Amino acid sequence: MDAATDTNPLDAVWKALADPTRRAMLDELRDGPRTTGALADRFGDMTRFGVMKHLGVLEAAGLITVERRGRERWNHLNAVPLRRIYERWVSQYEDNLAGSLLRLKQTVERKERMGIKLLDQPARVAQVKCEIVIDAAREAVYRAWFDRTADWFYEKEPGLHDGASHCEEKMGGKFYMDTPGGGFNVLGELTMIKPGMKIRMRGDCTQPDAVVINMTIAFEDAPGGTRVTVDHRMAGEFSDAAPGEFEEGWMDGLTKLKALVESHPA
User: Fold this and answer.
1) DSSP secondary structure letter of residue 2
2) pTM of the model
3) How many Å apart are CA 229 and CA 140, to the nearest integer?
4) What's the CA gap between 187 and 249, in Å, rounded?
5) Nearest alpha-carbon partner for 54 in 69, 38, 41, 39
6) What SS3 class is residue 259?
7) What separation in angstroms does the CA of 111 have from each of 116, 120, 259?
8) How far apart (Å, rounded) are the C-alpha atoms in residues 120 and 141?
9) Radius of gyration of the chain from Cα atoms?
10) What digits encode the pLDDT tens for the residues 50-87?
């Protein structure tokens, strides 16, 4: 059963944390409260209005609290939403990859003392959300997702991904691509299924770094057909370009799914 709701308060926290400037502001507040003026001086490449706008997003997400002392506005870090993210997205996976991420800092420090460098980038979080409306019944779109995956997912690359793509419709089912020589790459595994309505997958999408990705795909009736929404959330190590690349990849797949279903109905 899907434990999340469409009005999950953590959505605002994920959105706030996705911006590197806002994360830098939270870093500034770790050692103690700062006035808005002090933060504006610290981020001198931004206008005061820009700083205020970022602080507004952090306050709306509950990541900071504001105290007014006369004409000064003091900004305090509030770690409660971060704790909720830990409890919701990390603690329950401590026996798996997310638990390794929690211990990553200590491991890296120990290995670096031994002269072994493990990381080139810090752990972070990001959200990618894509949607498209397909002129077809919801059941037809849902069935094409599973039954015709090879016809819409991922453009083939000779010598790398020149086999078919598959998505198994069962709990623990794999979302994967065949590779040359009889192998395969698993992008994720299904952890939730609401037939005809929603699925959720978890995996690493074959990323080379330590990252865990949760992908929720919703199929909803909409004016003009069926709205398909992909909510892709990732935590761990990844490059600055990775979220944009995933957005481009999902939109490419959704566009091909739309063309497939609308031009070749089942």
Assistant:
1) -
2) 0.55
3) 15
4) 13
5) 39
6) helix
7) 5, 13, 50
8) 41
9) 21
10) 999 999 999 998 899 999 888 889 999 888 888 777 66
